[in-house]
Design a protein that fits this description.
This protein is α/β, with parallel strands linked by helices. It contains six helices and twelve strands. The chain is globular and about 60 Å long. It starts with a strand and ends with a helix.
Amino acid sequence: MAMWNPWRGCHKCSEGCQLCYIHKGDQRRGLDTNRIVRLPGFDAPVAKTASGAFKMKPDQTVYLCFSSDFLLEEADAWRPDCWRMMRQRPDLHFLFLTKRIHRLAQCLPEDWGDGWDNVTVCCTVENQRRADERLPLFASVPLKHRQIICQPMLGPIDLSAWLEGVEAVVVGGESDTQARPLDYAWVLALREQCLARDVRFTFRQCGTHFIKDGKAYTLNVRELTRQARLAGIDC
């Protein structure tokens, strides 16, 4: 696994952004998240050692743009170079998340065709409203690999109409003292939808405020991923 953040900064665009970890982290460091800047590691996938070997080792997943959104308007001038680097490294698999799926079709490279084997696009939906808004657009774009991310999950979501061609659904709650609660019943219902369509399901993390069998719990942030893993419901 590798990380590649060609730029940083983002703008809140929907309900799921309310307690965004990027904005919270930048605030602690005194940074303006709304200022989008290209980072020194922009060329990381093609950077080489003195001997001429790629510094980023082959045969791994590269998590792209996790300090921003890959489809931000301010990054339009930089994105073609990113596609070029991804094209140059077919030995790496690039994965990015976006809430701006409405921009995907216009941001793809000219030779995209029916998708690239080494790119996974993940559409984030936090509630039913955003699922109904984003997933028809997501389904309309040709992709070799697609996932749906329900994190933070802010309410029950029915994805059953949009699971065709989806490789995985990832679910998680918010991590913050002010987090909106995650009800375990929502998680289990989404798991059943995935089981019915033979789609991989991952419960990534509980929420700080977690409801199970009608009882409310407050969990330590360090316990969120562990408790989700202990639930043993990934399939």
